[in-house]
Amino acid sequence: MDRQALQQMIGRVLMVGIPGVELDEATAATLRRLHIGGVILFRRNVGTPTQLAALTAALHALPARPLVSIDHEGGRVMRLGAPFTSFPAMAVVGATGDSTVARQVGRAMGAELSAVGIDLDFAPVLDVHSNAANPVIGDRSFSSDPSVVTTMGIALMHGLYEGGVLSCGKHFPGHGDTDTDSHLTLPTVRRTRTELDRIELPPFRAAIAAGVPLLLTAHVLYPALDPHRPATLSPLILRDLLRTELGFAGVIASDDLEMRAISGHHDIGDAAVATLNAGVDLLLVCNDFAKAEVASAAIERAVIDGVLSANVVEAAAGRVNRLTKPHRSSIALADLPIAEHAALAARLRAQK
Question: 255, 256, 281, 341: which is the annotated catalytic residue?
Answer without folding.
Answer: 255
